[in-house]
């Protein structure tokens, strides 16, 4: 017998289904990890093994975070990296990150995921590209399992150090054959290609300025052999574009195309400086973009042309990016920032609140190459979150609670259900002792910065 869960009486249920239904007094009937029915409470079965009464709550599909570096939660607001652009910021931080340990990967993943979960995110990708002192992607994967988040673990890498004209110090780069071998091991050990997968592995060299052409090309071949996705950073700012032109004689988009890095199984972070030809290429090939507005503002990278990308048909999702270039991993805040920043760049109708929410749900799902998350409809994964509409932040905005979630001050969830399991209840994580996690995180963060001598 499947275990059943009834969600009832939601003030408003935002489905993101094909009709984009927003249902007053809505709910869902769930069996195990998937939605059987979504609609008005009165049309649903009246009992279940477990019942969640969502009276006074807004219920939405779980948000999808498409770009992050969770280990960076250990190095927020580092004085030497507070006021630099991308390359200078990285150069200062590499020295600290060289002292990361497996324990630090574990704790920072938990802290980052806790912050994401409490802010409405149920599926996250993480791009870990530095593996000093025995650190492994397995450390992140174990942490994700413990906390209960749906996870796309991206095996990042850096292979071109300063000696070879790259940006990272030689001490933190890996050999390319070792990178490919470990990526293959991770795919074979962990990757679940099935529907409702809680864990997928992604092949993800860090960026064109930290790996070789050969690794980019071989990574794409490996990913295609196993049917896993590809992810990297691209066209992040003007210096990134200049590096590409000087080193490869191509724009970042041309470079990506040349190496097989386009397609529905590829997504690139940032793309702030993606040109018109690049936008057309991405639209034509279904190549996705992770839009990270806070990070782009923090590093003064610019305003990504999300409005133009979406008009052209490019799949776009939201990413909080690493916590050293955002210093926060609050998903609702990131959605709000996406809306505000597009308007700064392209006018008041450049993005609506509902469009911002759609990008953060359906958009993120598409970018991660999934069709089983991002909407609340029969056959979809049971991933949803609720917000208590009696919070001060929403006072005076209840005539449109959906828009309120994006326009008003960023809120935390009261409930989060992932894969049919309750991960946040009454605003508290059910899977880990968050106080203890944060205490250990702070202790290890202090040790990390001290070890670097900065
Ligand atoms: Zn990034």
UniProtKB/TrEMBL annotation:
InterPro entries: Amidohydro-rel, Metal-dep_hydrolase_composite, Metal_Hydrolase, MTA/SAH_deaminase. Residues 58-423 form the Amidohydrolase-related domain. It is an enzyme of class 3 (hydrolase). Keywords: Hydrolase. Its EC number is 3.5.4.32. This is 8-oxoguanine deaminase. It comes from the Bacteria. It comes from Caballeronia jiangsuensis. Belongs to the metallo-dependent hydrolases superfamily. ATZ/TRZ family. One of its GO terms (molecular function) is 8-oxoguanine deaminase activity. Pfam families: Amidohydro_1 (PF01979).
